[in-house]
Structures are given as structure tokens and as C-alpha cells.
Amino acid sequence: MGQGTALYMGAVLGPGVLALPALAAAAAGPASMISWAILLVLSIPVALTFATLGARYPDGGGVSSFVARAFGPRASACVGWLFYAAVPVGVLAGALAGGNYVAEILGLAPGAEYGAAALILALAVAANFVGLHVSGRLQLVLVGLLVLLLVSATVFAVPHVESAHFTPFMPDGWMSVGSAALVLFYAFSGWEAASHLSAEFADPRRHLPRATAITLSLVSVLYLGLSFVTIGVLGDSAGASEVPLMTLLDTGLGNGARGLTAAAAICLSLGAVNTFIAGAARLGAALGRDGALPAWLAKGGSAGQVPRRSLSVQAVLIGVLTLVAWLVPLDLDPLMRATSAFLAAVTAAGMAASLRLLRRGTPLWCAALVAVVFTVVVMAFSGWLLILPLLVGIGAILYVRSRRWTVPQAEELEFAVDVAAAATSSPSAVSGSERS
Questions:
Q1: CB 314 within 8 A of CB 87
Q2: What is the pTM of this model?
Q3: What is the C-alpha separation between 194 and 188, in angstroms, rounded?
Q4: Number of domains into which the chain is organized
Q5: I need a surface site. Which of 76, 93, 303, 418 has the fewest CB within 10 A?
């Protein structure tokens, strides 16, 4: 179960912590801590809902498989395409966040951050080609180092916190809290990626809720602690800093902490990129299996196997986008915002599906309803970037129609998911010590 929990942690505790504390502080000052708290509270129903549905219907299709059960395979195809298209953008943003830190710390020439990002992406793709077991073990090591570094940054910076930095607490009013919350959404969009890995747990019904609870607890402590010391130590300069984590480590440990910061940046980026690529590879195989993408992508999609064809497609898309970003160039902000637009749409669809799959009126159902409303608000603030998921969704519909896809009957959908669930618990499946 440790490797599965590490994959979840890597998806949620991603490279956003490298830049988002400063961006949130710029938007709301000390009140940005309220924004962090709001996002953490609202991520609970999303995480618990995906954990419940993943434990009940373990499948590599993740959110798209939930949508298939609730709204049918055509809606599922659209959601699957949205996530599959979001991953190349999102992992490039994550890798570039780490690349920016590395370039800043090492004093590299402008443009070197793209080379560092490309190296991070190549390592993650290679780990997934070897297999999810190796990827999971790598993730376990990365998350352990990451937690250690973030705890160190927080603990050693606490003695330098000044109470004067928390006044005025809300300089720009309550609207700034909402603005900061929208900026921070990127940091809480990893649950979708993790949902595609539910079938990799030896016992999803038992292990998935535990992994979710552990991840929620650790992420809450680390995020709130980091936001507190960012404001308390850096004060007004927090919003202007492009490398707040480096500054905190410098303050607490001295200039020798720059090497630690570079290590933290690489661990954060590689960990998140690793999980998103693993989830997207599984999803592509599931979509190929279900007819929403070419059938040849389905090879290697069974539990315990490596979907190398789907992974190869992701590698090509990521490589092309990285080259385009270097040539244009594209910086971190538009990449993060575009990723959030895609993943907000995926989250909204997943939560809407849960309203049909969960028992109406239960506490989890009510919490999912709140999550739907919140993610719709986030989508509305995405502005013109909503065109991107809209175009991908239209592309999915046109592809399905061009193939004259016959909508499977409900019984066939039940059978497909039951087969996937049986595969994870059969004696021939990979042992729990290898897969969880």
C-alpha cells in the first residue's frame, strides 16, 4: 500500500508548492491562509468521493469510467479525452516549475529551465516504461525526500516568523480570498490523476480509502504549515518572490540550503509528473479498450501490465509541447491556467457522476454536491481558456461519431468493470506487495 499512497501523494503534493504560496500571497496577503484552508476543506469531498467510487469500481479509466456508469460511454469518451489532453500540458507545467528553480539556483542562462524540465519529463517517462512497480518504488523514495524537505523548510523557518507580517490580515477584502483560492486550484487537482490508478491496488476497497486519508492528512499539515511560514517569514515580499521555498530554506539553514532547494524542486516535479503520466497511460489503454480511442492503444492495459503504446503517445505529445514551449516561449502561468481549465472540467464531471452513483441524501452525496458547485465556479473564472476543453470535447464527439460507435448496454458496462475488478483480485494478478 505504501507505493500506492506515494503515487497519490505525488499527484496532490505537486510542484505547485514551489510557486503557489507566493502567488496566493500576492493575491490576498496573509488572508491567503484562509484560501489554503478553504481548498483543503473542499478537496475532502472530491478525494473521498473518488476514493469511494475507485474502491467500488476499480478501473484504469478513472473518472471517465465513473462518468460512463452515470451518463453513458459518449460522455465518458469526452471526459477521457479531456484528461488525456490535459496531462501533456500539466506535466510540462510541473516540470517547468522545477526547472525554473534549478535554473535560478544554479545561475543558468535564460532558457535553461526548459532543458531541466525536459530532463525531468524524460526520467518520469522512462520510469513508467520500465513499469508501474518501479515507478511506484521511485515515487515512494521521492515522496519521502519531499516530505522531509518541506518539513525542514517549515520547522527551521518558524523561529524567524514575525507577528507584524500578519497585519493587516486582509488588506484587499474578502474578494481577494476568492481570487487566491482560484490561483491555488492547480495544487488540488491531483485527485483525478490518482483515480486512474485505483485498479493497481491489491485490495482497492481496503487500501484506497487508507491511502486517501493518509494523503489528505499529510497534505493538509504540509500546505498549511508552508503557507504560514511563507507569510510569517517573508512578509510583504512573499508575493514578489519567485522562489519562496528557496528563501525559506536560506533563512532557516543558510546559503548552503540552495542545494536542498534544488533537490526539493526536482523531487516535487518528478513526483507529480510521474503520477500524472502513469494515470494518463492507464487511461489511454482504457479508452482504447472501450472504443473511445484507437483499439491498438489498449495493449498492456490489464492490471499489472505496462500500457507502453498509450505511454508512447503521451511521450510524443509531451515532447512536441515541450519543444513548442521552448520555441515560443510559453512560461509557467498560462500552462498552469490551461491545466486547471481542463482538470476543473474533469472534476466537475466526476462529481456530477457521483451524484448519480452515490445514495442520494447521504453526507458524502451532499459533500459531492458542494464540490460540483465549487468546481463550476472555478470553470467560470477560467475565462477564454474554457475554449480548450470545449474543443477537445467536440473532437471526442466527432471521433466517436466517425466510428459509428454503438453505445454499449448497461449490462455490458457492468461486465467490463466487473472483469477489471476481478483481474485485480485474481490469483494470477500481481501480488499485493508488488502492486500497492
A1: yes
A2: 0.73
A3: 12
A4: 1
A5: 418
